[in-house]
Amino acid sequence: MAKQPRVLVGQVAAITGGARGIGKETARALVAEGMKVAIGDLDLDVAEATARELARGGSNVRAYRLDVTDRASVRAFIEATERDLGPIGVFDNNAGIMPVGAFLDESDDSTRRQIDINVYGVLNGVKEILPLFVERRRGHLINVASMAGKGGFPGVATYCGTKHFVVGLSESLRGELQYVDSPVEVSCVMPAIVQTELATGLKATRGVKPTTPEDVAEAIVDALKFPRFDVIVPKSAAVANGVLQLLPRRGREGLARALGADKALIEADQGARQGYEVRAAHSDPQLASGDQPAALSGGQD
């Protein structure tokens, strides 16, 4: 007998960094499934515009200003969502940034911003939502990592480190929940390069199917209906990763060179990325109004 999908209609989902890119398309897909969705984003104006677009005249999508680097802001986001929409059943740690460039050229501000958003942003979400899920004995935590959390790619050294953290954290959380026999689910989403503003100017790699935000959103919906931990997008990337892990280091590095993966990020077109980088750098929550960013690096998914 085929396994029956979990019912999503009427459930509440909260998405960090949900105003653009993967977060926005995930919100769209969840609304299409009949869910109520809270969009949290540092850019409230864009979040509200996204909410209006997706709500279709209803009240099933709400927007909130959210700074994931501030645990109190995350707590306020969760409290407002539950007050307005009901108990959260799905929490999607989606917010993230990906500066591109050689590690030796990376500024301290860029390093700090990546760790604040990609690491502490995820931790703050987990620390605030997981106690509620465990107490209620229901809930599904989605942590958006990257295939960069499974390997190392020239041009995004710190980013890779932060995504390795998200993968390791998610694995450990799953183990601890199983240890205490909790029914709370954890999924770790690991996309290849996704065609969002974040990927502007990156070089294509041979043999890798282009991935869209819609592809990632579809995979997340599927993981909610049929819970699983590993959510690799596209599925071909999971096969490729499995093969790579069987090869010795020289073989892995040789294959990466053959596919152009060793140059895809470090040889990015910085001119093409400039608009994205400027907006992203201005998203630093530690900048006071009117301040200028110290460096053009970083951006939200």
TrEMBL record:
Recorded family membership: Belongs to the short-chain dehydrogenases/reductases (SDR) family.
Protein known as: SDR family oxidoreductase
Q: Keyword annotations for this protein?
A: Oxidoreductase
Q: Which Gene3D superfamilies match?
A: NAD(P)-binding Rossmann-like Domain
Superkingdom assignment: Bacteria
Where are the residues of the annotated region Disordered?
Answer: 281-301
